[in-house]
């Protein structure tokens, strides 16, 4: 089949790109190896930057984000037995929204299908050919196991951290700048009311915990754990004990735990984001550790740059924006990499940390919460830097 833009991956990046291209009159095909059900039910992060919310609402991608999402004007940083509020509204006049990523995906999939657009599930991309030529091709296997080729004017890899498009762009499926971390997050979903009005990010001698939310009756919580831990090996009582111990001074409201998972930590930026007529966006281009919830927001920021660049290239033959895409995108990507690394190192206890490391970390936390200047950096980065207009 032929199309103008072949988009590999029906996550936030791929689906939003298709939506923005359609609004500009550019046809695309989106494929994903997963099923619609899998995409719409996998639990991911839940915090949207103000600019992400504005993008979704203003482009008609999601009416529900404003109706059903919850605005949060701050977070609590907790350490040494006390909590300190970071007042986003007061510090930078911005906010974030709690609205789960799989709800964003449900909205984007519904919008795309309602517009009668080509979106295919269970279709696996194998490789990209001739990315540097004028008509690149994607070689795929369709839902019935039959070979399929999509010929396009441009190929976009929005296919996540194990991207198959990456090799065509960077020359290697793994090539990039990496950082590993010696810990992971144990995540749970439970049936309970919220324990606090806002999210709590807690640094404790036992390690990090994040008390997040999903709704009035469902809560999302995480605690720092060994990356090799077996999620099934904990009883519910052990999980509550692990969480409670990491938020000293707060009493969590407990309830049945109905889902658990272990999230690996990694920082990654691909060596290149674009080659010829192929580009990478979202996790295919970069991965951040979850602390600070930058993953989906960064994917949206990438797409906000790539959509107008493809519009100029494909409708007017103007290559200036696509030529500038990687450099412009990388500015924000490295700022978000730094912020995610910084939030992680600020709040977690590294295995083998010395008493010096511990006390230095508390000094760092006090320089954030004890100063409007320190707190404003966190507030600015967390709520999100301005997006391309
Ligand atoms: C959530 C995840 C994050 O990584 C974060 O920083 C805040 C919230 C969440 O899943 O709710």
TrEMBL record:
Query: Is Oxidoreductase there in the keyword field?
Result: yes
UniProt keywords (A-Z) are: Monooxygenase, Oxidoreductase
Please report the stretch or stretches of sequence annotated as the FAD-binding domain: 2-339
Q: What Enzyme Commission number(s) appear in the record?
A: 1.14.13.2
- Any Pfam family from its record, for instance, is FAD_binding_3
Gene Ontology molecular function: 4-hydroxybenzoate 3-monooxygenase activity; FAD binding
- The EC class name is oxidoreductase
Q: What is this protein called?
A: 4-hydroxybenzoate 3-monooxygenase
Species: Agromyces seonyuensis
């Amino acid at each position: 089949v032929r199309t103008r833009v072949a988009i590999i991956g029906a996550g936030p990046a791929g689906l939003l790109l298709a939506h923005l291209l359609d609004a500009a009159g550019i046809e695309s095909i989106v494929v994903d190896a997963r099923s619609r059900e899998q995409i719409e039910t996998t639990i991911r992060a839940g915090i949207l930057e103000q600019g992400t919310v504005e993008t979704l609402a203003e482009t008609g991608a999601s009416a529900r984000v404003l109706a059903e999402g919850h605005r949060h004007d701050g977070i609590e940083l907790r350490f040494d037995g006390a909590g300190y509020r970071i007042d986003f509204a007061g510090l930078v006049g911005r906010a974030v929204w709690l609205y789960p990523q799989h709800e964003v995906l449900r909205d984007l999939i519904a919008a795309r299908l309602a517009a009668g657009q080509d979106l295919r599930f269970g279709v696996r991309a194998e490789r990209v050919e001739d990315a540097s030529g004028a008509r690149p091709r994607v070689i795929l296997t369709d839902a019935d196991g039959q070979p399929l080729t999509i010929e396009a004017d441009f190929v976009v890899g929005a296919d996540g951290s194990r991207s198959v498009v990456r090799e065509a762009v960077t020359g290697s499926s793994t090539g990039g700048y990496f950082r590993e971390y010696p810990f992971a997050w144990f995540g749970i979903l439970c049936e309970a009311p919220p324990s606090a009005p806002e999210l709590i990010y807690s640094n404790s001698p036992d390690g990090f915990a994040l008390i997040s939310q999903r709704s009035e009756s469902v809560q999302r919580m995480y605690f720092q754990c060994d990356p090799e831990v077996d999620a099934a090996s904990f009883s519910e009582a052990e999980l509550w004990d692990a969480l409670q111990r990491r938020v000293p001074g707060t009493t969590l409201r407990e309830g049945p735990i109905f889902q658990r998972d272990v999230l690996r930590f990694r920082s990654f930026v691909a060596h290149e984001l674009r080659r010829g007529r192929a580009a990478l966006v979202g996790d295919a281009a970069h991965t951040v550790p979850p602390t600070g919830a930058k993953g989906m927001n960064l994917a949206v920021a990438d797409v906000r740059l790539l959509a107008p660049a493809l519009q100029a290239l494909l409708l007017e033959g103007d290559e200036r924006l696509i030529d500038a895409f990687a450099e412009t995108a990388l500015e924000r990507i490295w700022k978000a990499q730094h912020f995610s690394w910084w939030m992680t190192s600020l709040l977690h206890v590294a295995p083998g940390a010395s008493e010096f490391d511990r006390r230095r970390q508390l000094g760092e936390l006090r320089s954030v919460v004890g100063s409007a200047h320190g707190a404003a950096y966190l507030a600015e980065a967390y709520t999100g830097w301005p997006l391309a207009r």
